[in-house]
Amino acid sequence: MNVEIKISKRPIPYIKALKYLEKRVNDIKSKKGKDFIWILEHPTTYTAGVRASNEEILDKKIKIIPTNRGGKITLHNPGQKIVYFAINLNDKKKDIRNFIKFIEKSIIDFLKIYKIKSKSDRKNIGIWVKNKKIAAIGVKVSRWVAYHGCSINIKNNIKEYQKIIPCGLSNNKITSIKNEGILKINKVEENLKKTFVSNLRDI
Description:
Blueprint: E1 3-7, H1 14-29, E2 35-40, E3 45-48, E4 64-66, E5 73-76, E6 80-88, H2 96-113, E7 119-120, E8 127-129, E9 132-142, E10 145-153, H3 188-200
C-alpha cells in the first residue's frame, strides 16, 4: 500500500501541523503526493469546528483556534494522540461515511489491544467507552481528498476539558485509557500505525 506514515515524538504546535497537513492535501490534489498518515501530539490547544458556538466556551480566558473540520469545540493536550490523514478517495470508494467507519474501526481495534471495549455512535460521532467519550473524529473532504482525523485520549489531563463543553457534551462524559484504569500503556504509536494501516486496505 502506497501510504506514508509519519510519527512525531515531540508535540507539534497546532497551526504548524495544520499548515503541513494542508500542504500534503494540496500535493495529493496536484498528483505530487501520496496518501499520508501522521501520528503526533499537540501542546494544550482548544479548537473549534464548523458547528461550534460561543456557549461551549466556559472559561472565556482560553484561546480558541477556528478550523474547517467538522464538529464542535474540543481539546488537544499532551498525552492525547492525534492521527491526521490526507487520503485520496478518488482511487477508492467515494464514500465519506465509509471513511468515517474506517476511522471508527481503527480506534476500536486499537483500544482492544489495551483491553478496552468501545463502540461508535451514529448520532454522536466519536468512540465511546460505556457512556463516556474517549476519541473525537473530525473530517473535511475537498475534491475527494479526506483530511484532518481523530484524537484519542491516552493519558492526558482530562480536567482541562472543564474549560469547555467538549463536542457539545458535559465534562464528566470524557475519559481516557489511563482513566479507565489501564496503567501499562506501551507501544502506542506502533499499535496506532498497525491498526490504521491494516484497516486502510478496506476503504
